[in-house]
User: What shape does this take?
Amino acid sequence: MPKSNVLPALLQQIARRLTPQPAKIRADIEVTCFSYDGIDAIKTALLQGEKMSTELCPIKVKLVAPPLYVVVANTLDKEMGLATVRSGVEKIKEVVETFGGELAIKMEVLYSAIRLRCRVLTGIACCGIGIGRYCFDGFDASHGSRE
Assistant: This one.
């Protein structure tokens, strides 16, 4: 039987390791609007997309470089996260098209577990999501593994 001062530390470590890991859901979109309302139309559409978030799955829209934006959500429920990000992208598309703009999906809605790392000859699971030659973990993704 462990000593009384070791038991609380042991229980704390077990509880920390058994907590569910959050999932990162993301989609890369390109939003353009060349009408008179241009920038205001894009801003309105992106804000409407963010309003599709829920308490359990908040959506954030981040600017990469005009006209490329990233729709990101961190959640514990993968399916709910995928559905929420998809609905946010659809809402952005719907609103920007009412102003005469366009939305092009550059990278479809993807899921990755935040704790996964890339395999660079080590056998560790790859995050499976990369843009071009590099994955989101900063490692060279040329290994092409999606485990």
Q: What stands out?
A: Confidence is low (pLDDT under 50) at residues 115-147. The chain has three helices and six strands. The CA atoms of residues 30 and 68 lie 4 Å apart. The first strand starts at residue 23 and ends at 32.
